[in-house]
Amino acid sequence: MKTKSLLPLAIVIIAASLTGCGKGGTNQSDRTANALASYVAPGEKDEYYLFYSGGHSGQVYVAGLPSLRPIITIPVFAPHPGTGYGFDDESKKMLGDFTWGDVHHPALSQTNSKYDGRWLFVNDNANNRIARIDLRDFKTHQILGPIPNSIGNHGSSFITENSEYILCATRFSVPLPKGRVADPNDYEKQFNGMVSGIKVDPQTGEMKVGWQILTPPFDWDLGSTGKGPSSGWAFWTSYNTEMAHDTLEVNASQKDRDLAAVVNWRAAEKAVADGKAEMMDGVPIIDPAKVPGILYFVPIGKSPHGMDVDPTGKWVVAGGKLSPTTTVLNFEKVQAAINDKTFEGEFRGVPILKYEAVVEGEVPVGLGPLHTQFDGKGNAYTSLFIDSAIVKWKLPPWTDAEKKDLTKAVLDKVQAHFSTGHLVVAGSDTANPYGKWLVAMNKLSAGRHVNVGPSQPESSQLIDITGDKMKMVAESYTDPEPHFAQILKVSEIQPEEVYPKDENKDPNAVWDKDATGVTRNGNQVVAKLTAIRSHFTPDRIDAQVGDDLIVHVTNIEQTRDMIHGFGLVEHNINMVMDPGETKTFHIKLTKPGVFPFYCTNFCSALHQEMQGYLVVWEPGKGPGAGGAGGGSTGGGK
Ligand code: K7E
Ligand code: CUA
Residue 629, SS3? Predict the structure, then answer.
């Protein structure tokens, strides 16, 4: 056996020395093959969108696959001057008092467990919000929250199979309702966690808080929603079943198993409709001890992290951060255990399903398993944080030999660089994954890029999963800090490149010169401007110190990519209007002077000339001063 297995190795060594190993140990022909696999030539387009969550940068990043080329940033929870986000009234209002968020898990909307290409939802772990991006224009259209009775919105946004709900679970527990103060020493008695059902309007995507389920103060972690046999259910792991409130890195790792949550969200919806909830802070709250059939617990190996449902909806896979295994639950057994009341106890009135009755097996995948994705061909791919690797393994049904020794279910392992957190397989959370590509999102890049000083990017790596063996083909870098991503086939959506004029419903939109102008009403000055290559009409606004100035700018272009900006010097204003779009800002004028405004988005050869003046006169001075309200105070007509 030994000579047999050494021989090919010798050949490889000789071959490598002949062809010359490339950097990173890849030989020349592999380098060429890999380069071609991810190469998208100038003028060609990628096959997939990759929507990265941007972590504490608060944004979503869009790259192309397989090129991994960054394409745009979709600003969500943080201002973004490049697109004017957070400067006009509407986006400012959406952001509210916050200028950052912590985006972890993007979720594409689904119909019948398939991406329907309508919306992308993302959660904000920090400020307990959910945002909706419309894939018609790749822009944020709603930010819901802070969600009442909910702190640390990390275990979201998990979408149900027909986008009925975004389901969320809390990472932190606090005394509820929010604002109530209790001593953290009374954590067990006074603090609570929550599972929330955020209802999504099937036509508009508009979100509102539907109901909530009160939970013990565990730290809910990752989750996912069911489909097929597990339709109507959702799952979350937890850590800190110990209910520690300090030194969590020690105190929350005492027990060998933590309790995962198995939630019947359809039953929760029905319980609320049947009047079985009590209101707290305006939300119907279900107490699972009083309403049976909504919540169950399952013990899962030590401090688990990801909990992912496979495309058939039968297998639920939990990664055991501190144990070298993934635990595979069989949902049919979960269902049977619930029906037969095969419980091993209860916690605060919630039944704990007997572990042996619901588990299919523990697969020894390697160290630090976090998240699992699926290719729809019976394979699972798990990220290993500690091993810095992606492991491919076989989902059940297993052969008898595999059952006896589940190392046999482990099929392949590929090194990632370094410390992989999330990974994504194209379409993994649908009933029919695209498969083909896997992207590993690594926590560290450890200097694999050119030196950029101490603030280093994260790395992401593209892995070809079409063959028996995984193949690492490309590597790229992203802003801090991708946690999860979604992949959508480009051909499945058709975003608008221009806002059609007749769909602009903004009451302050102006399209004709005659409708533009500046009007005063008491202390309020309203300017309505058009922007078109290469002019603002009017290009002069007169007002006085103490006035409230409201400026509406309509980009009357109907041509692709003809974007105009409106930057106002020394007033911290930069709006950006896409073709056919109207935006508004309002400010209180506090200082006299002449302040140029100009187009900030390069639009034409005469872009530099696209400018005008805001003249802020001393009180009582300037055109229209002393006159009665309603008069024109600026030229340009
Ligand atoms: Cu694993 Cu927030 Cu999904 Cu990061 S979480 S890795
Ligand atoms: Cu308009 Cu530059």
Answer: coil
Across 83-102, b (16+ Cβ under 10 Å) vs e yields: bbbbbbeebeebbeebebbb
Q: Please tell me the distance between residue 490's alpha carbon and the centre of ligand 1 in angstroms.
A: 26
State how far the Cα of 196 lies from the Cα of 585, in Å rounded to an integer. Answer: 34
What's residue 637's pLDDT?
Answer: 39
Enter the tokens of residue 541: 């606004």
Our answer on whether the CB atom of 321 is closer than 6 Å to any ligand 1 atom is no
pTM here is 0.94
Query: Ligand 2 centroid vs 71 CA: distance in angstroms?
Result: 21
DSSP 581-611: -EEEEEEE--S-EEEEEE--S--STTGGG-E
Q: Could you tell me where the DSSP H helices lie in 375-522?
A: 400-404
Least distant ligand from the CA of 565: 2
Cis peptide before 146 (omega within 30 of 0): yes
Say which ligand is closest to the CA of 599. 2
Q: Which residues of the chain have pLDDT under 50?
A: 1-22, 627-632, 634-637
- 37 contact partners, CB below 8 Å, separation of at least 6: 66, 464, 471, 473, 474
Distance from the alpha carbon of residue 531 to the mean position of ligand 2, in angstroms: 8
Closest CA to 222 of 332, 309, 351: 309
Q: Is the CB of 610 under 6 A from ligand 2?
A: yes
| Cα of 260 from ligand 1 centre, angstroms | 17
* Ligand 1 atom with the shortest distance to the CA of 104: 2
